[in-house]
Structure formats: structure tokens, C-alpha cells
Design the sequence.
């Protein structure tokens, strides 16, 4: 029975990894890139290459900026479909609330506002019809920045790791969630399979044949990063559990939602509805100074990371200031709320409950908003180890079965091999190719971001076609030559991206590292150069291994 159970776990581990491993590879790789998504944004949008700034003065800089903010045209059009009658001109809509958000890695400042739709235009079934406006500004001057450029790091690579950028019916989210659950099962079944797990921690024999060395590396990377893999698969599921996978708050409990908001407002003392009485806005800068004083008194000095004003211009208006908690792992805001018209402190949020503290710690550890660069690089290493673990699993599967499949005429290992090439080297080609397109396309080009997205998928599709064509009959080669060829393509694209960044912006490595240090851009360029070096090294190793295995195969054919 013990042997049967082990075989059952091996079967489960193999097929879960094979079917969903391609999704997990994308989740791990783009999750690793997401650790430095803001830095990739700086590389992709040269006009945002300046030092990160604290939250600027509201009274002297932000307040005049908000006076110029208008509802977004797309949001106006979407809201028009939900209301009765015609919306008034955007400039006549009153601003109901506003917010501003920044982090220790963001030079630019993201601001937004909510504009009220007149009550007589609201559909009875949609009590919360409103429109929004948002913009990106330079916090040093208040100047509006062009906001139609694709933030490749935070708006493309980051959502790729949890949604595959497939928003239709939220299928991408569900597919990644299913893959995350499969990852937990695969980890448990993998531990059950490998009874000598501690010996495998130290075992790697690269001189052995491909099947053996791939399995060694698969076991080694799986064991070394086992806590990392388990934790991130688990916390990723937890983060989306309440909002997407089991949204009872928005479905089964929806009738109680409004009542809960009212009760919460009574408990916190923060007004839930506007009073309908006009009131001026007191000095927000004075409220910021008081919030900083109170945080320092609690032995947690810091800057404001998130500012929000509710019921703007109303007697029930209040200002919420959240501390930028980049000095700790837990995602805690330590919010302080002020009465907007007088600056009086309405509420200082107490420490969270034990359950809340655990949730905030797990969420913060996954989202890594903290300012700890060594730990951030360890996150990248953990994500890349996950990629290596999955990739070597694919290689082991193909190498173990290709001879048998060749004898029976099956195309299974050929298809898996081509998909593995596409998922590993093809994903690198698509990622770096997107950066190359970012530098090649004119900065003022209309719809540049959409072309960059199309380029990303086009590069990946070309990698798939190349892998399928070069796979050939499974009996002809010990390893698909597409692995080696796509490694060369990866190296060429990486070098091209670094060179084009120099030519288009003038920010070469000698400048970004020495004369005018700017490590966000230098880090991306250095990572691309390291990737190019590793790709060339991998291509050479693959060529050597191919030569070592061709000779025995030739002798075997010669002897019949």
C-alpha cells in the first residue's frame, strides 16, 4: 500500500505540473519581475527618471492641481450608460472626494478624484453612480505628465503574474488561482515522493546525462526554495479569496453591505453620508504635520503615503492620512482621520487584532512594499528558482519519454518539448522584445502602449512557431535545437535593449552608475547584460551536450 501511495503521488505530481506548469512558470517569472516593477517603469518612460519624492504640500501644490482635474472621458461614457438622462458637462460636476498615492520607489505622484452625478440622474438600482478622474503629476512642480504611456512594469508585467492579463470573465485570475492550488498539491506530493529529501538538497550531477542532471536540479531547486514556493502560492490564494474566489461580501452578504457601512461609520465616528451643508477646507498641511507628530510619538516616524479627502467641501468632510509603511513588512497604514473643516482629530486607528495582524503581515510579505533591497533580491531569486524547478521538470518529462514516444509514433513529448521551449526561452524573448519595441517606437506615437502589447504577444507566438518547427521527429535529436537557438535570440535582444536605451536616452551605464547615479535604470540594464551572458553560456553548454550525445546515437544507428 505504501508503494501504491507513492506511485499515486508521483502520478499526481507529474500531471499537475505538466498541465498547469506553464501557467506557474509565467506566475513565478513575472512575479519575480514585479519585485522591481517601478524600476522597469522608469526604464520604459524616460521622462519619469528622477529621484523618488515625498508627498508634496497639499495647500500650495496639490490643491491647485486638483482644481484642474477633470473626469476621465472613458469613465464619463461608462457612467452615462448607467444613469437616467444626459450627464452635465464635466467642468460642472462637483468633486466629492480625492486621493493621492506615492511610495518610496515612485518619483511620480498618482492622484485621482470622484465626481458626483446629480441624484435625479441616478438609476434607482445604481445608488453609487459617479465618475472618476485621475492623472500622474510631477510632485516637484505639479505639472501634469502624459498619462497614456504604458507602464510596462506595473501595468503589464505585474498583473501578468496573477491574471495573465486575461480579464475576460476574469478567466486569467481563475486560471492562476487554480495553478496556485495545484502548486500546493504538487509541493506536498513532491515531498511524499522524495523520501531522501535532505540528501537531494546537496545532490547535483551536471556531468550526468540530461535526464539525470535535470532531475537533480529539479529536486534541488524544489527543496531549497520549498518554503518560498509554498508561502507565495498560499498567500496569493488568500489575497484573492475574499474578493474573487469566494466573494460572499459582494454576493450573499450584499443586502447587509449598506447597513454594515452605516454601523461602521457609527463605530469609527467617520461620517458615512455628506451633510449637504457647505464647509471650507482647513489647512491639510497642518493635519499632515499633526499626523507626523503623532506617529513619531508612537515611535514610528514616517511620511504620508496615501492621502484621501471624503465629502469634499461638505460639513461632514474628513481627511484620512495613511503612513507610508515602507519600514515594516506588514501592510499597515496607521491611519489618522481629521475633520476637514477644522483639522480636529476624529479618529486614530488602533493596532489591528491578532487575526488582522496576521493578515496584514502575510499580505505585506507577499506584496513587498517594504524598503529592504536585500530581501527584494531574495524574492527575485526565489521566483527564478521556481522557474528553474518547473523548467527542469519539463525537460525531465520529455527526456524520460521521448525514445518510447518515438518508437510508438506518439507526438506527446514533441508537443511538451515545444511548449516548454516557448514557456522558458520564449517568455524571455517576449519580455525583452517588448523592451526593445519600447525603445524603437517613437515616444510621441499614438497608441504606443497597445503596439508594445501586440509586440509582446507577437514575439511569444514567433517563439512557439519556431519551437514547433525545430522540434522535428522526436527520434532525431537528444534535445530540441530551439533551446539553443532561442538562447542566442535572447542574448541578442538583451544587448539590443541596452544599446537602444543608450542611443535613445543617453543614459548609458557609465552615466547611470558613476557620473549621475540612477540605479533604477542601471539595474535594468545590468540585469539585461547578465541575462545576455547567461543565455550565451547556456547556448554553449547545450551545444557541448548535443555533441557528446550525437556520437553514441550515430554509433547506435551504424550498428543497426
Sequence:
Amino acid at each position: 500500500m505504501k508503494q501504491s501511495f507513492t506511485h499515486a503521488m508521483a502520478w499526481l505530481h507529474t500531471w499537475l505540473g505538466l498541465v498547469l506548469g506553464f501557467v506557474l512558470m509565467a506566475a513565478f517569472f513575472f512575479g519575480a519581475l514585479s519585485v522591481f516593477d517601478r524600476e522597469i517603469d522608469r526604464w520604459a518612460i524616460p521622462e519619469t527618471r528622477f529621484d523618488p519624492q515625498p508627498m508634496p504640500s497639499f495647500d500650495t501644490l496639490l490643491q491647485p492641481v486638483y482644481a484642474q482635474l477633470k473626469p476621465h472621458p472613458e469613465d464619463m461614457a461608462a457612467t452615462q450608460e448607467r444613469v437616467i438622462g444626459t450627464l452635465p458637462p464635466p467642468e460642472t460636476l462637483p468633486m466629492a472626494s480625492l486621493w493621492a498615492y506615492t511610495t518610496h520607489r515612485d518619483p511620480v505622484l498618482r492622484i485621482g478624484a470622484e465626481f458626483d452625478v446629480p441624484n435625479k440622474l441616478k438609476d434607482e438600482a445604481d445608488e453609487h453612480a459617479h465618475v472618476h478622474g485621475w492623472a500622474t503629476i510631477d510632485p516637484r512642480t505639479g505639472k501634469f505628465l502624459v498619462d497614456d504611456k504604458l507602464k510596462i512594469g506595473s501595468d503589464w508585467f505585474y498583473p501578468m503574474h496573477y491574471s495573465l492579463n486575461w480579464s475576460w470573465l476574469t478567466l486569467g485570475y481563475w486560471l492562476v488561482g487554480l495553478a496556485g492550488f495545484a502548486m500546493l498539491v504538487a509541493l506536498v506530493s513532491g515531498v511524499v515522493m522524495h523520501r531522501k529529501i535532505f540528501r537531494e538538497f546537496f545532490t547535483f550531477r551536471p556531468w550526468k546525462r540530461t535526464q539525470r542532471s535535470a532531475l537533480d536540479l529539479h529536486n534541488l531547486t524544489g527543496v531549497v526554495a520549498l518554503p518560498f514556493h509554498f508561502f507565495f502560492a498560499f498567500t496569493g490564494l488568500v489575497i484573492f479569496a475574499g474578493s474573487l474566489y469566494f466573494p460572499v461580501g459582494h454576493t450573499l452578504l450584499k443586502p447587509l453591505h449598506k447597513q454594515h457601512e452605516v454601523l461602521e461609520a457609527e463605530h469609527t465616528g467617520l461620517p458615512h453620508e455628506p451633510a449637504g451643508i457647505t464647509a471650507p477646507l482647513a489647512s491639510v498641511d497642518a493635519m499632515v504635520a499633526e499626523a507626523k507628530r503623532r506617529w513619531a510619538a508612537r515611535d514610528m516616524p514616517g511620511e504620508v503615503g496615501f492621502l484621501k479627502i471624503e465629502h469634499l467641501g461638505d460639513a461632514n468632510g474628513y481627511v484620512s492620512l495613511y503612513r507610508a509603511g515602507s519600514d515594516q513588512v506588514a501592510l499597515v497604514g496607521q491611519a489618522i482621520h481629521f475633520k476637514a473643516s477644522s483639522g480636529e482629530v476624529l479618529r486614530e486607528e488602533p493596532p489591528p487584532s491578532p487575526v488582522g495582524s496576521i493578515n496584514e503581515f502575510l499580505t505585506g510579505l507577499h506584496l513587498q512594499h517594504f524598503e529592504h533591497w536585500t530581501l527584494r533580491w531574495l524574492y527575485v531569486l526565489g521566483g527564478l528558482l521556481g522557474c528553474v524547478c518547473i523548467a527542469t521538470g519539463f525537460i525531465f518529462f520529455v527526456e524520460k519519454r521521448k525514445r518510447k514516444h518515438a518508437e510508438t509514433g506518439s507526438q506527446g513529448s514533441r508537443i511538451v518539448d515545444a511548449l516548454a521551449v516557448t514557456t522558458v526561452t520564449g517568455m524571455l524573448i517576449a519580455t525583452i522584445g517588448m523592451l526593445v519595441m519600447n525603445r524603437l517606437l517613437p515616444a510621441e506615437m499614438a497608441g504606443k502602449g497597445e503596439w508594445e502589447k501586440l509586440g509582446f504577444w507577437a514575439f511569444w507566438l514567433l517563439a512557439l512557431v519556431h519551437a514547433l518547427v525545430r522540434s522535428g521527429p522526436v527520434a532525431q535529436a537528444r534535445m530540441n535545437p530551439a533551446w539553443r537557438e532561442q538562447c542566442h535570440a535572447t542574448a541578442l535582444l538583451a544587448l539590443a535593449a541596452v544599446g537602444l536605451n543608450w542611443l535613445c536616452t543617453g543614459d548609458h551605464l557609465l552615466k547611470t552608475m558613476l557620473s549621475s547615479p540612477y540605479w533604477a535604470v542601471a539595474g535594468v540594464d545590468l540585469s539585461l547584460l547578465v541575462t545576455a551572458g547567461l543565455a550565451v553560456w547556456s547556448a554553449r553548454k547545450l551545444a557541448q551536450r548535443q555533441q557528446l550525445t550525437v556520437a553514441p546515437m550515430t554509433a547506435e544507428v551504424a550498428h543497426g
